[in-house]
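G., the chain you wanted modeled:
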Amino acid sequence: MTNDNSICVLLAIWGERYIKDFLELSLPSLLAPGNVPALASHYPVRFVFLTRTRDVDVFSDHPAIQKLKTYCEVDYLSLDDLITIENYSTTLTLALDRAIRSTGKKMLKTYFLILMADYIMADGSLKGLMKYIQAGYSGICAGNFQVLKEETKEFFLSQVDQANHVMQISPRALLKYSLEHLHPVTVSSVYNQGVLHNYRANRFLYRHSSEVLVGRFYLLHALCIKPEVENYHVGSSFDYSFIPEMCSSGRIAVIDDSDDYFVVEVQPKKHELLNVDHGPYQEKKLARALSEWTTKQHRENAKKSIYFHARDILPKEKLAIEVQINHFIQGLDKQLKRYKEQPYYNHPYWRGAFKAFEMQKHLAQNNQDYFSITPATELFSLPRNLYYRFIGLPPKVFPWYYRWREYRLMMKEIKNQIVPEEINDAVVLYDHYHLEMISYYRLFKEIMKIPDHYYLDKVVNSKDKLKELNNKKYKTCIIVVSSEYLDGVKDFLSVIKKWLNFNGKIVILIFNEKNYIPSFIYNFTLECICKINSILNMQYKIDKLSSVNNNLTMLNAGIVYKINRLFGYNKKMRFLFYILLGLPGCILSLVLNLLPRFSKKGYGHCTNIIVSLIPDESIKQCEQGVF
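Predicted structure as tokens:
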């Protein structure tokens, strides 16, 4: 090992569930002989996990991490202060920037290899990457596509040698398998299938045969970067700005053959599925959508083909493929020339994302600041402030707002389950960072005057706060949770039980995140009941179960969803239709909300389920020594 340069692998991941998936699936593929071991035989390698401080223990004792340490140094860099509400791209960019800058002047002799936690890497991919490193490129980019996690997870687990913690799959074998399990988002990116489209796509694929897929990528993955300057600036997401900022010489390569480098991204079916719709692409609409975000570099990226092939490709085949794919891209380019290129520095997407990041950091300083709506309203834009003046601040809204009846019914049901004398001895827990939580905070804090509010995951990981709460002995604990996260409540029941007095009850308020889907298609009530049964243990039983129903919520959510689908490529058209349909919608809401027969309880689309759990009598008697 005589190289002056070194390799620093950067991988951002947090949350125990995601880390365990990475350790079981992705890391074994990195440990294949042609990947990290090959890299480590030629360069000094340091592997840095960008994660939360409390998650380090999840990594440290795992045997695959111990195996990784035999090849390279393993470090952890905290991003505790960077994690905010559903703003992953900004957190990732700032975390990568922090890791690169932490190396100081050494960055100029370091190749930073940026990996994603949901990649399965073919054996030999990092060995293939080394050819580009040794050729002297400062920036090396690659492309990939997604496969279905639900269909592939068991197969990938079966490919891991459990004794050595290695998954060794050749590029062509991995590609052949992956082509049989493409994610719907990937299928929608295949422009010559003519059945699905996705106007938020950033890559387009040409299906030549069952074994050959060819891609043109507007957005490439910035895989490997050796900075040419120390004083670079972050003015947009890392895959928009890192290459042009750090590699100004233009020594940039794109790995264009899956035999050299191939990864697949394993994603659950619901990932970005809402962006997929039926029907072929319309060139003008697609160009308008691309014009919202594409920079000069993005438009240049799409001129180069990346070949994913499970067999050899003849030269005459390549010529025919290039004719086909050039025709598609050149047509888009012709339309795109009508629109100005977006700047990579101070990109409009970044401005919005960073503003949201700053706002969310302000809200997350502590529990009270996070859940209070007041700081948020100070940061709202003028149009948003006018909107809230017109409809009210949820849940205290005017009758012309479509959720007026829903909020009234929800407040009534909650008050039926929590008697006034329990108010001062109650605590409210919120399951995860979600902007919908602000409405519920206002209900419990400002209307019902419940004093104690905490973000659940945050409080259970604070030893000092747990010690304080164990001495409280509340009469009631309210948990606000989305249906998606309901399964996770089971993990916290034993902790919460210690905060309650002997007869303390737990009230779970579950809100529907899929109000745009009618109840006859997505049975939210049934899903909640099934999940509630799965989280119950022998210590609690269901005392009451009630629902909140409001057809107007479904109607409005469905209309907004449809507008976003139809005009996802055009912000001005979306805003125009919001205005055109919003005013008649307010009149309709006012009329229907005030009709007594429309307010009949228990009918219509279910927006919330409220469940009250009480201690099981037999358990209480056992604890008292009756049996």
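Residues 571-594 form the longest helix (24 residues).

Shout if anything looks off.
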